[in-house]
Amino acid sequence: MIRYFAAHPTAANLLLLFLVVLGLAALPSLKRETFPDFTPKEIEVRVPYPGASAEDVEEAVCRRLEDAIDTVNDVAEVRCQALESVAVAVAKMTDSAEFSRFLDDIKSEVDAIDDFPEQVELPIIRQLGRLDQVVSIAVTGPMSATDLKIYAEQLKDRIKQLPKVSQVTILGFSQHQLQVRVSAEALKRHGLGISDLANAIARQNVDLPAGSVETRERDFLVRFTDERRSVQRLEDLIVIGSKEGGAEVRLGDIANVSDRFELDEDKVLFNGERAALLQITKTKSEDTLDAVNAVKAFIAKERRTAPPGVKFALTQDMSSIVSDRLQMLLKNGVQGLILVFLVMWLFFQLRFAFWVAMGLPVAFLGGLFLMAVFGQSINMISMVALLIGVGLLMDDAIVIAENIAAQLKQGKSAFNAAVEGTQQVMPGVLSSFLTTTAVFTPLAFLSGDIGQVLKVLPVVLISVLSVSLLEAFLILISQIILKPVFSRK
Question: What pTM value is reported for the model?
Answer without folding.
Answer: 0.65
